[in-house]
TrEMBL record:
Residues 31-382 form the FAD dependent oxidoreductase domain. The keyword 4Fe-4S does not apply. Keywords: Oxidoreductase. GO terms for cellular component: cytoplasm. Gene3D superfamilies: D-Amino Acid Oxidase, subunit A, domain 2 (3.30.9.10), FAD/NAD(P)-binding domain (3.50.50.60). This is FAD-dependent oxidoreductase. One of its GO terms (molecular function) is oxidoreductase activity. The keyword Oxidoreductase applies. PANTHER family: FAD DEPENDENT OXIDOREDUCTASE DOMAIN-CONTAINING PROTEIN (PTHR13847:SF281), SARCOSINE DEHYDROGENASE-RELATED (PTHR13847). It comes from the Bacteria.
Length: 427
């Protein structure tokens, strides 16, 4: 994409081709126009088209260009916020509703993959949240207890059990969440696009929306070469938002996150590291994540951007970190390195916005957007088709709140991650 191997890296090298799409050629009519071709927009398109709506998706660049094509591929259940804290933040009704919806959200992802035969290296053997030090163990104990009392299949593993599951002795405990799994994210989002097209949606790429106007009860959105008139607009642009809804971007702090993929590891290492193929990440503030792809490449990531001095700093750190966590791994070669921006909200919760009458969208997934984006896309479809009233949505309607000192704080994330990695912080 954009001829830049640092944008989608391994995922672009290995994913099945995207369905053929072109840019918007002229003026069209639809029931719903969806702006943004990631998990949220394409799940919304698929579910609306299945209900018989005439749907047009406009994507500025390519399918999966934003976070959906660049992420780690951990299909998580729930959010960062502790389950018990949610009702206090959102109120009982929304808190319970959101917990149920996002706790079960991986089901929808794996169901869609099965139903639409999406080839995306799907593995559902759970995820391992790995505890670093006493503080990490305390956090996992709380999380485990709060999910367990809600009947979720989560298991707190001690250091020995963790060492067997991870293939490393550096972690003090881990939380195995059997609701979760891993996918190849670009392959998944391309598969969603194919399924949406098969259900009747029209998708146009290379078609940035530049403006939106209300005319009577209808909306018209414009690109440089055409327009779409529709009753509803779904704004699914999230952290990669370009005009005409800059407030969606302004509400989010961009946290850069990179991944490196090793060459396929030896059979011995593959049998020893993550032998059951869970996806893993740790409890540190500047966290690290690791998982395998289907051909035995270890994908290792952390906070930072692969640009400027960051490219070398993070690469050198990643090699050292891998050697520290997996001492037998040796001097690994990286086949690919890429990065993207995660959209963080001020309270770590996603948001539902009505930006104008019949202009709606979800955003702000705080680095957990595969399952939420998929399930929120379905919620948008159910709301637009009249199945789900406003009062029954999983989040209250809020106005986007601009984050203060955004530019400065984003620069601090980028510089701070380099400093931390230069200082050699690993475990
Ligand atoms: C490096 C990284 C690692 C991550 N790891 C994980 C993970 O392991 N698990 C997980 O669950 N989540 C993860 N996430 C988060 C997850 O990827 C995102 O939350 C999710 O992809 C958001 O999907 P989306 O469809 O809402 O937005 P996006 O996928 O960002 O799509 C938005 C699209 O809108 C388009 N767009 C913007 N403006 C316009 C316009 N004016 N006109 C037309 N199109 C427009 C963009 O080009 C973009 O393609 C990660 C994110 C990153 C960046």
């Amino acid at each position: 994409m954009l001829d830049d191997p640092r944008s989608h890296g391994l995922w672009e090298n290995m994913a099945p081709a995207a369905p053929q799409t072109a840019s918007l050629p002229g003026d069209l009519n639809a029931d719903v126009v969806i702006v943004g071709g990631g998990f949220t927009g394409l799940s919304s398109a698929l579910h609306l088209a299945q209900k018989g709506a005439k749907v047009v998706v406009l994507e500025a660049v390519e399918i999966g260009f934003g976070g959906s094509g660049r992420n780690v591929g951990l299909v998580n259940a729930g959010m960062w916020v502790m389950p018990d804290d949610l009702p206090g933040v959102l109120g009982e009704d929304y808190g319970d509703r959101l917990l149920k919806l996002l706790g079960n959200a991986p089901d929808l992802v794996f169901d869609l993959i099965g139903k639409h035969k999406i080839e995306c290296e799907a593995v559902r053997s759970g995820t391992l949240h790995c505890g670093v030090g006493a503080a990490g163990v305390r956090e996992l104990e709380q999380r485990a207890g709060q999910w367990a009392k809600r009947g979720a299949p989560v298991h707190l593993l001690d250091a020995d059990e963790t060492a067997k599951k991870v293939g490393s002795t550096v972690y003090a405990a881990s939380l195995l969440d059997l609701r979760a799994g891993t996918i190849q994210p670009l392959a998944y989002v391309r598969g969603l696009a194919r399924a949406a097209i098969e259900a009747g949606a029209d998708i146009f790429t290379g078609s940035p929306v530049v403006s939106a106007e209300r005319s009577g009860q209808r909306w018209s959105v414009q690109t440089s070469r055409g327009s779409v008139s529709a009753d509803w607009i779904v704004v699914a642009t999230n952290a990669y938002t370009k005009a005409p809804w800059p407030q969606v971007r302004a509400e989010l702090l961009h946290l850069p996150y990179f991944n490196f993929a090793t060459a396929p590891l030896s059979e011995n290492l593959r049998a020893f590291i993550l032998p059951e193929r869970q996806g893993a990440w740790d409890t540190k503030e500047i966290l690290s994540s690791f998982r395998f792809d289907s051909q035995g490449r270890l994908v290792f990531g952390s906070v930072g951007a692969l640009r400027g001095t960051g490219t070398a700093v993070h690469r050198i750190w990643a090699k050292r970190a891998l050697a520290r966590i997996f001492p037998d791994i040796g001097d690994v070669e990286f086949e690919a390195g890429w990065y993207g921006k995660i959209g963080m909200t001020s309270d770590s919760l996603p948001k539902f916005h009505r930006l104008a009458p019949n202009v709606i969208g979800f955003s702000g997934y705080n680095g957990r957007g595969i399952a939420p984006g998929t399930v929120f896309g379905q919620v948008l479809a159910r709301h637009i088709s009249g199945e789900l009233s406003e009062a029954d949505l999983p989040l209250p309607i809020t106005d986007p709140q601009e984050q203060t000192f955004r530019t400065l704080r984003e620069a601090c994330y980028e510089a701070g991650s380099q400093l931390a990695h230069l200082a050699g912080t690993i475990i």
